[in-house]
Each structure stands twice: as structure tokens, then as C-alpha cells.
Amino acid sequence: MQAISDFLITLPIGDFVATHDWVWPFCETLHFVGMCLLLGTVGVVDLRVLGVAKGIPIKLLEKFIPLGVIAFVVNMTTGFIFIAGNPVGGPMEYLTNLSLQIKMLIVVIAGINLLAFYATGLHRSLETVPADGNASGGAKAVAAVSLFAWIMVIVMGRFIMYNDTLLYAFGL
Amino acid sequence: MFEAIENSAYAVWVRESPSIFAYTTILSLHAIGLAIIVGIHTLIALRLLGFVQEIPLAPMRKLFPWMYLGFAINLFSGSSLLAANLTNDLGNWLFICKLVFIALAMINLELTRMWVFDRPVIAAPGQLPQRSRAVAIAALVLWGLAMVAGRFTAYPNFVEAWLGF
Known about the structure:
By secondary structure, chain A is an all-alpha fold. Chain A is 77% helix and 0% strand.
């Protein structure tokens, strides 16, 4: 962690954040917009696969996924700026934050879930689902994991600034 | 009266309890409700503006109860957070702006339902009521403004300095 922090401090991000007071709240706002777009695209596809709003063809709804990918990139970028450019506690404050560590773990789980969806060929089963039809059980399981993971990413994201309550709950 | 609310047992619990279910969980619920309502409404607005036009509009009506769920979550969580910090929040003009934008965004949501989705003609492909474009643009603008005002509620000093107050 210390090595990563030492590297991040050498980047000019910290200086830029410290000398431009609009950067932090601007990135925070973008981070929230990205969150909404991710849930509004990936989350809605998950809901449809789980059987909500039948009549919407899953295949067509999936065309909104690239917007979710853009949102994810926006949030990775702004999130990186928060860690590398933290003007008060520096990168270490975040890198050692249990809530952030759990959040990143869940992002990785969501990514593995998505890779498994393609690697196992489950995605092909969705192409033949009629507009008002049911997805396969396997696809529903992947969608349920995805939806739960992204909601928990939001929750753990909010916990970062209130990490003490998490430590308190864990008796740490 | 503000003080009575802020000093109520519930408001004190929300604000001061070290429990994981107090302030932190309620704040998390507020972000989840935001993502649900703004996320789904953005998707619907983009569809009305011409993205992925092959998606039939009629079944998208079924997403409205989910937006109402998001709003209910945020009415509850937002009221709780407001009770815990009433005097400060109501004295913050950016917070008042946020409430106004949310009210307008919700009126626009209802107009979208009435004008676009609760009309029998929506089953016909390629035909959209004239006003569908207007309510879609209004949705993106109003939710965007509500989120900017909401986030900058935490930075009134910055904003006032930028605006030269």
C-alpha cells in the first residue's frame, strides 16, 4: 500500500486538486452521474433478465450496455482522482480504508461474474428469449449477482467517509 | 419547532448513533434510491430521444413502479437525513434549489407517464407524441440540475465564492 501511495503522490493530480477547488465536487458529481447511468443500463438489463418489464426484448435493452461501460470508465477515472488527489489524508487514507477495499473487491466480483456470463456461453441463451419470455435460470443467477453486487458497491462507496461505523459493527 | 424535530429521539439516533444502521445506512439508501429513479428515467428519456428505437414503448411503462420505489426510498431516507440536520439544511440555498429541481423532475415524470405512456396509441411503432421529446429533455436537465445542486449542497462556500456572492 505504501509503495502504491508513494507512486500516486509523485503524480501531479494531488497538486491540481489542491490548487483548484472545483475539481473535487465536480468529480463527485460526475461519480454520482456515472453511478446512475450504470444502474440505469446494467441494472435495468439485470431486472429484465430477472423477469421485470416483460415485453422489452433483452437483446435490444442490451444495446444500452455501452453507455454503462462509459459510466464505469468515468467512475474508475474520477475514483482514481479521489485516491491519488486526496488533499487531506493523501492516498493512504483511502488505500487503507476497509469500506473502499470491500467496495473494490465487489467490483472485481461483478467483473468476474460478467466474464463468467460470456465464458460459459450463457449470453447466447439470451439472444433467443422472446420479448415477453423468461431467461434461463443460469442467466437469472448472473443477473441477480450483478444487481446485488452493484447495489453493494453503492453502499460500500457511501461507507468510505463513515468507515468508523463499519469498523464499529465489525467490533474493530 | 426546528429544534424540537432535530432533538427528537429519531433525529438524534440518525445523527449520533454509532450503529451501522443509522446515518451511514440511511445515506446509502439515499444513493440507491437516486440511482434507481434517475437511472431508469435517463434510460426512458434516451429511448424517447431516439436511442434504440426498436424497443417498444408500451412495456417500458412497467418500469414506472420501480421509479416510484426509488422515490419512496428517497422520501424516507431524505426526510430522515433532513430531520437530523434540519436548521442547517433549510438554511442552505443550494439544498432548497435541489428540492425545487426534484419537485419539477417528479412533475415531469408524471407528465411523461400521462402524455407518453398512458396513451393508448403508444403501441404504434415510430409514432411519438410531440411532447415526448420535450419531457425527455426536461428529465435529463432537471435530474442533472438536482444532482449538481445536491452535491454542491456540501460546498455552499465554494459556490458563493465562484458566483461572487
